[in-house]
Design a protein that fits this description.
CATH superfamily of the largest domain: Type I PLP-dependent aspartate aminotransferase-like (Major domain)
Distance between the termini: 37 Å
Order of helices and strands: EHHEHEHEEEEEEEHHHEHEEH
Radius of gyration: 21 Å
Helix content: 25-40%
Strand content: 15-25%
Largest sheet: 7 strands, mixed
Shape: globular
Bound molecules: pyridoxal-5'-phosphate
Oligomer: single chain
CATH class of the largest domain: Alpha Beta
Structural class: alpha/beta
Number of strands: 13
CATH architecture of the largest domain: 3-Layer(aba) Sandwich
Strand order of the largest sheet: 2-10-9-8-5-3-4
Length: about 350
């Protein structure tokens, strides 16, 4: 039985109940090995088979071919802020970055340590309430980096920029929540703890061609090519986190794949946005409508109402609704594993709140 709380956390976040159940079993006996998943060797046939199967499942889900590699790395998405420019940029190279929020900003700060970075679009002056698409990218840059979903600011790219240079995306908070043409991307990364499982592993999907003509003599543990050469098991990887990711990916496949995830995500987010739009005096979403995120819904309320709202949510065990620590407001995170029923319970509570206070 799962605890009786509705988990709207932005990450680590809600997991499918089935994944928690299979993980419990694997803690006792992983794939009939007679050992716990916590005990097995990372170079055993059983674990290698798990890694191989998961790589294939990820590729099938993304509809990408042998020209892509799938890695399970550590250090979170934050480490990728460093590892991407470290691997892709020679000292004479430059890259273009879009800044639509705090995570994009952090990616730029790290990348600037390694090479020349041009910020081609920055929505800071609009308080990151929209996504701008009318920017120009010099094709001499090695790649363009975007954050596909801005977890804190509640915006999302619904149409990715068309570029002549490789596209790199931080998909930490919307990976596998929708159908995309993943072949348009050259590198995709996502910390697992939102839509892919438990914290501790980062999914990194790389088109092999982007690794050509890159710096040599990198520190091996940070070198994508070394991880690929070692079949994604260069050193001891986060075995349990990879197991949970593997089960979560299977759960997505067994529940209709990305089309189904997209429909469900849209239905859940639309239910909440409808209430926000119907009661604009109470719930104010600052984000431009066409750029709204379907995974992280943010809004502000008149001060006193907001305090009451959050206190009542706490009493009802609706968890994780307080906005990002430096931003305030309310944030409702709705990932794949969040049941529609839970969203409806929250929605009914919002309607009831309006009735009682307004
Ligand atoms: C879009 C995005 N990028 C990066 C990060 C940082 O991820 P991590 O904590 O895995 O380093 C987060 C965390 O919430 C995020 O939402």
């Amino acid at each position: 039985m799962k605890q009786h709380a509705l988990n709207f956390n932005s990450g680590p976040a809600v997991l499918p109940l089935e994944v928690i159940e299979t993980s419990k079993q694997a803690l006792q006996n992983f794939n009939d090995t007679g050992l716990s998943i916590l005990e097995i060797g990372h170079r055993t046939e059983a674990f290698k088979a798990l890694v191989f199967e998961t790589q294939n499942n990820v590729k099938n889900l993304m509809n990408i071919g042998a020209d892509y590699e799938v890695l399970f790395l550590t250090g979170g998405a934050t480490q990728q802020f460093m590892q991407i420019p470290y691997n892709l940029l020679n000292k004479s190279d430059s890259a273009a970055y879009v800044v639509n929020g705090i995570w994009g900003e952090k990616a730029v700060q790290e990348a600037q340590i390694w090479s020349q970075i041009q910020v081609v679009s920055n929505t800071t002056n609009e308080n990151h309430t929209k996504i701008e698409t009318d920017f120009v990218v010099d094709k001499n840059h090695k790649y363009l980096h975007v954050t596909s979903n801005n977890t804190v600011e509640g915006t999302q790219w619904h149409q990715f920029p068309k570029t002549e240079i490789p596209l790199v995306a931080d998909m930490s908070s919307d990976i596998f929540s929708r159908q995309l043409d993943f072949t348009k991307f050259d590198l995709i990364y996502a910390g697992a703890q939102k839509n892919l499982g438990a914290a501790g592993v980062t999914l990194v999907v790389i088109k092999k061609s982007i690794l050509e003509n890159n710096p040599e003599n990198l520190s091996p543990i940070l070198d994508y090519r070394q991880h690929i050469k070692a079949g994604a098991i260069l050193n001891t990887p986060p075995v349990f986190a990879i197991y949970v990711l593997s089960e979560t990916v299977k759960w997505i496949i067994n529940n209709g794949g990305l089309n189904s995830m997209e429909q469900n995500t849209f239905e859940k987010a639309s239910a909440i946005y409808k209430i926000i739009d119907d009661y604009k005096d109470v719930f104010h979403c600052p984000v431009r409508k066409e750029d709204r995120s379907f995974n992280n819904i943010i809004f502000n309320m008149p001060k006193e109402l907001e305090t009451n709202f959050l206190n009542e949510c706490k009493a009802h065990k609706f968890i994780g609704l307080k906005g990002y620590r430096t931003k305030g407001g309310v944030r409702i995170s709705i990932y794949n594993a969040m049941p529609l029923e839970d969203v409806k319970i929250l929605g009914n509570f919002m309607l009831d709140f309006v009735k009682r206070y307004v």
